[in-house]
Specification:
2 copies of one chain form a homodimer. Chain A contains 8 helices and 8 strands, in the order αααββαααββαβββαβ. Chain A has helices at 4-20, 26-33, 37-49, 65-88, 97-103, 111-118, 165-174, 208-211; strands at residues 53-55, 61-63, 144-145, 154-160, 181-188, 193-197, 203-206, 214-218. In chain A, strand 1 (53-55) and strand 2 form a beta hairpin. The relative contact order of chain A is 0.10. The first copy, chain A, binds a DNA duplex through residues 3, 5, 25-27, 35-43, 46, 57-58.
DNA sequence: TATAAAATTTAGGTTTGTCTAAAAATTAAT
DNA sequence: ATTAATTTTTAGACAAACCTAAATTTTATA
């Protein structure tokens, strides 16, 4: 039996390992979980005991195959619930994280596969993040950060790196929701801000920060 | 802040009070919660401290107005999720209790009202139990136990008193799902078993126990 | 390479929710 | 109205998950 708290730690470790490629440090986990390093050490011992992580004192941790499977299943649940909340209940993409965080812990035999069927087997969640299938396989997509585009290139918004409500709401305001098209007109060398044009002819200036947090697919 | 465990106790007390009309006893709560009397006493102190119940040592408990509101909201959530699981995800009525038991604890501003809207504001759950509205008002229905029918009377199934999967599955097998019509042909005095006819002409003999656990509306 | 700084772990505590066994109060029965 | 049976509460423990403060280990720096 894996507790909710344990599940959350596994997910946090998975998330860190995704970005960093090396063993996840106690401090990084504490930051991700918004708790103290001491609490993390406590939990790491328990997770190691259950063979969900490989843990060596002072050396950070890595998920075992089993731990990785648990984390992947959780992410699948989280993202499917997000699709449900947005597509079926009409929530906006900046409102669903906390709800999905709770829903992902609901345990039940067929629940998630039935939900998946009900939603039409979506491959990406409302933020453009891939949803692993029942066997833990991920969908990939040719996407790059907006900041890497060259002037003249056209692209469509496919996802975000920063998932904060503030960023998502700002994108809503700009009309840069998933699928929105755009063309990079120029990059100002002074601060790396970007001038882009939308299909309806509007021109926007986006900060470097926006460019580094928005994924697009070049068309 | 009310914990999941506290919520479950409030719901249990509500359920007992519904049937018994008098103060709920420690033992009755322990039975309903499948735990020990000592654990119940512990919890009752906490609930009383939070003004969710009126508690006097050795005298049983009653919900306060606030406690009753919490319990009602929980029941609303539980039953709406059951409708979702049956109507949208295709679960059968004997499979949804445990899932709804978890889903009812998910906290979120508009979640339940949005779910309610999505489901079309159902008034009854898949077992025929009423779903209180957002203000805590209950729907009532003219229903009686099948065992109270007189020979010759026709009725339709509206709900169950026994919610066990075994009973629900048996009813499925008999074709006595919600809305099913029937006519009482005779009651055998020997064991109070009932001979009934269904609209498609089938005749069934139902035990006294079935008659005392099936609600019907006389037509 | 010592020493300072940073990261990590240990030690010792707290809260929530549970338990068993024993004590106390209430209710039933002779 | 005592005694017996039942119900309820208290006492004392335990596990999970967290905390702060202190000790230890690792890493960075002079």
């Amino acid at each position: 039996m894996i507790s909710h708290a344990e599940e959350n730690y596994l997910k946090a470790i998975f998330k860190i390992s995704e970005k960093e490629a090396k063993a996840a440090s106690t401090n990084a986990i504490a930051a991700e979980m918004q708790t103290t390093a001491a609490s993390v050490t406590d939990m790491l011992k328990r997770l190691a005991e259950k063979n969900l992580i490989d843990y060596e004192k002072y050396r950070g941790v890595q998920l075992t195959t089993e731990g990785s499977q648990v984390a992947t299943a959780l992410i699948r649940k989280h993202r499917l619930w997000e699709v449900f909340l947005v597509d079926k209940l009409g929530f906006s993409w900046d409102e669903v994280h906390d709800l999905a965080e709770q829903l992902e812990h609901v345990q039940g035999n067929n629940l998630i596969d039935r939900l998946d069927t009900f939603l039409g087997h979506p491959k990406f969640d409302p933020h453009g993040d891939p949803i692993p299938d029942a066997e833990g396989r991920w969908s990939f997509r040719q996407q790059v950060l907006l900041s890497t585009l060259k002037p003249g290139e056209r692209a469509a918004v496919t996802g975000v790196d920063d998932h904060s409500p503030a960023f998502l709401q700002y994108l809503d305001q700009l009309g840069l929701t998933l699928g929105a098209g755009l063309e990079l007109l120029e990059r100002f060398p002074y601060d790396q801000s970007l001038r882009v044009r939308t299909p309806d002819g509007r021109e926007l200036v986006l900060s470097e920060k926006v460019g580094q947090n928005l994924f697009v697919k070049i068309s």
